[in-house]
Amino acid sequence: MIIAKILLGTAVLGGAVAMQDGIVTVNVREKHPGGHHIWVAAPGVLVPLGLKFAPRHELEEQMRCSREWLPVVHAALRELQKSPDAIFVEVQTAREHVLVQKSWGRIQVDVDTDDAEVHVAVPLRTAQHALAELEELQPAS
Amino acid sequence: MTTGKTKTAGALAAIAALTFIGVSAITLAAQNDPNAAPQGASATADRWLHVSVINRDPKGDRVRVNLPISVAEGVLSSVKHDRLDHGVIKVDQLKMDEVDFRKLYASLKSAKDGEYVTVESASCNVRVAKDNGFFIVRANDKSKKESNIYVRMPFAVVDALFSGKPDELNVLAALRVLSSHGDSELVSVKDSENTVRVWVDSKNSTD
């Protein structure tokens, strides 16, 4: 009984820690017959963790190219954290519908075209943590 | 029987305690979330810049952008790229066809309210006026069935825009002044196909 309680407690605490950054979801559905449907949901806390195991050389190369834009992304994420939920961009044409919004502390991008439907949601906290992780890769200037 | 009840009560107490720990951990995480507290305050204090491009055909294209001015300010103030340096754009000269816009603006600003420039030609009509602290431009293209441009910019915003060196436009300062201004329609362009609007208000959506 005690072991069961400890396991349950560990599971609850582990779940709480894993979910503190929210969940990253990616949902892609191809509309043609036999098209793929990919749905991934992962705790946001895994993203910065995953970056630790990504090929360092590749990441450093990417960071060298995007170095000057990091403060911009940082500032955008910081301000977006403070802003209320809203639709930031909506584009509606005869063949596609694109929506970029903030909802429940997540940045959500929804694209619906004749060929496919793509929905991506990333918690802002996850994006900030991932960015901090990437910034550590920067060579000191 | 009593032992059974005690065991059930113990198990319930354990589940309640674990649930409490779990909920506390989640709440703690939420409290650390800088997003959680300021949302309400931000929702009332934030000013929003809106852009809407709507095709007149009911099935036509539609673009809507709603941007908190604070986000635009934050982003602008951190960009240092090419001619844009932390919200200030470097321009070689604010002149077009030898017209010095700074001088033109300065003389317009010091003048009384009224219509100051009227150009009526075969192809278009342009009117530039000053009205109650606003700089107003109206133009229409006669070659098109319907083409109207209307710009209404507070002088304070233009002042802030020109507040830097002669070869600079301080967009960040202009945005800051704009955010402290009341609800205002800044630009409206209407032609036979599209309606474009740019305005500022405190709503986070376009109507």
General description of the model:
The complex is a heterodimer of chains A (141) and B (207). Chain A has 141 residues and is α+β, with helices and mostly antiparallel strands. Chain A has one domain (22-135). Helices cover 44% and strands 33% of the residues of chain A. Chain A contains five helices and six strands. Chain A has helices at residues 2-19, 46-53, 56-66, 70-82, 124-135, and strands at residues 23-30, 37-43, 86-92, 96-103, 106-113, 116-123. In chain A, strands 2-1-6-5-4-3 form a six-stranded antiparallel beta sheet. In chain A, helix 2 runs parallel beside helix 5 (124-135) and helix 4 runs antiparallel to helix 5 (124-135). The radius of gyration of chain A is 19 Å and the shape is globular. The model of chain A has no long low-confidence stretch (mean pLDDT 87). An eight-stranded antiparallel beta sheet of chain B has the order 2-1-14-13-11-10-9-8. In chain B, strands 3-4-5-12 form a four-stranded antiparallel beta sheet. A two-stranded antiparallel ribbon of chain B has the order 6-7. The longest helix of chain B is centred in the first third of the chain and has 31 residues, at 2-32. In chain B, helix 3 runs antiparallel to helix 6 (171-180) and helix 5 runs antiparallel to helix 6 (171-180). Chain B is globular and about 95 Å long. Chain B is an alpha+beta fold. The chains are: A alpha+beta (141), B alpha+beta (207). The interface between A and B is large, with 37 and 44 residues.
